[in-house]
Amino acid sequence: MKEDKDKSGILLIIIPFLVFFTTLVFIVLKIYNILTWGWEWVLSPLWIFAGIILIIWTFICVMLSSGSSDPFWEDENVSYLRDNKKDKGGAKDE
């Protein structure tokens, strides 16, 4: 279990490093006229990475602000227990 956490932590460091390193290599190759690409493609690792982060961030924000009283990640058993507590602690029938 600890190895899984270590791997995810390493990925969070390695992926941005690779994106910025690739961009730096493309910039150097463009400056020395080895690459004949336009600047939008030289800088593409940055905007592709930024786009992926933006999509993930938007998805998380939409899911958190959906306003649903019963979020999709909530366990059915927890909802069932919560509903039973309300029934038992509510007003008494006469």
Quote the average pLDDT: 79
Number of domains: 1
Total DSSP helices:
4
Class inferred from helices and paired strands:
mainly alpha
Q: Give me the Rg, rounded.
A: 25 Å
Helix/strand order, N-terminal first: HHHH
Biggest sheet record: none
Distance between the ends = 54 Å
Strand content: under 5%
Topology, number of strands: 0
Oligomer: single chain
Shape: elongated
Helix fraction by DSSP (H/I, runs of at least 4): over 70%
Describe the SSE topology:
Elements: H1 2-31, H2 39-42, H3 44-64, H4 76-89
Helix pairs in contact: 1-3
Structural summary, described in words:
The protein has 94 residues and is an all-alpha fold. The chain has one domain. Helix content is 73%, strand content 0%. It is built from four helices and no strands. It has helices at residues 2-31, 39-42, 44-64, 76-89. The radius of gyration is 25 Å and the shape is elongated. The mean pLDDT is 79.
